[in-house]
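Entry 14. Structure prediction run on the chain below.
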Amino acid sequence: MNRRSLGIILSILGVVALPAMVFGQADAFTHFTRARALQENGNLDRARTEYNRAIERKPNFTEAYNNRGIIQLTQKEAAGALADFTRAIELDPKCILAFYNRGISRLRTGNLAGAITDLTRALELDPKDASASIARGIARFAKEDLSGAITDYSRAIELTNKDGQAYLLRGYARQAQKDWEGALADYTRALELEPDNANACFLRGRVKQAKGDTNGAQADYAQAHELEPMLAQNFNDSGLAKAAKQDWDGALVDYNFALELNPKYTFVYNNRGIAKKEKGDGEGALADYARAIALDPNYGFPHNNSGVVRESRGDFDGAIADFNRALELNPKYVLALRNRGNARRGKGDLDGAIADYNYALTLDKQCTPAYFGRASAYYMQQAWTNALNDLNRFCELNPADQDYEHFFIWIIRTRLNQQPAADRELQAYMELRPKNESNPWPEKITAFLLGKLSDTEFLAATSAPNRQMQTERTCEAWFYLGIKRLFAGDKPKAAESFRKCLATEVKSFSEYQFSQTELKALGQ
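Output returned:
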């Protein structure tokens, strides 16, 4: 089940507190009554303290356990809440609200089977409990038991007939079954009962869109946005959270929803462009950045991000134009400075590139990509000591990801007649580096540089799950093959390898640019 969808559904559920009643121990009852008042006023910490005192004075105080469990659930202390509801049930095996609340607690923590068991027991004790029926329907929906969920929602509707949320939830389950007519009817009824329900309006728009009613869908999206302007932002925020976990497909779904609600949401076009770029859709990314810029020409991020896509495709002039515009809007935009340095380096303007890296590092001495970029420019100038210093500085500041920096350090130190020490350093780094089972390619490069992998085996290791990745690995492989052949004194074969690197056309990679430098140094 879609996590966003479950979030919408769970937001309608609440737990239920037991009312104050007269019990045998007046002192415990006093604390309980005080706790209830504090709880109702939102003072949960003090209420919890009072429930603790009530339980100390009356250890079999069922209602106090139930209500304290609600506070713990609210404060996201799931284990404590579960323990309290369980204790309440042990004290009173017919405590409907404790079964209901424990069911909600289990549902919110993902224990769907346990939730269904508890909510079923609550319904056995009170078959007319519409809330328990709705909650069990949600648990069944989460388990992908759509028919069971619809049965529960329908039962709740029979019991109340005026619960807009029950219609909304049944519509959602019917939509999951692609019962467009049933879903449309339920969402429409939900909106009749709750005209301000933005979720129902948005979901009805999704159904209309699936049915081919584009105008009707857009009208519903516009109304949903008017009812709840933050709804589009919620989808954007959800997309950002997924992007942070590199769930680009999930992020794209949320960004698309946000733009359906608000087609002029500038920030989302920029964010969706980033997701598309990460998915390898450069054209789609550029289109989104262009749309963001058209909506707000003074929004610097899409200018920079557009430049990144162009630079990655070898369009250095187009990239520089984008970075220039970003820097016109913000002359101290460190990322754009670093990126323009990369584009200038790709064009062969090494002095211009170094100037950009220098300024970026003046503004932010911790900007590790600028150290790497400047090291690459120094490499292309064959300023080996300067390049080595910047690579070492990068490694000092960024301990998490240093693979290629160590490869280039090995190359430079070998050039400076320090190969034994370079070998030991690279070997030590790879032994300490965490293994990445999903990407063994850096380990293959290391093995090749250290003489543990033949040329043929190394080239065979470039095999990748997609064409773009294989092309990029091939670019890198031919560069490192050229370097090893150069160090072995076989200049003709080294030059041939560097030319094969250039044939991959991966112009933004350092290995491609270094191959150009090496060929120039060989007089080719």
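The two ends are 59 Å apart (CA to CA).
Filed with the rest of this week's runs.
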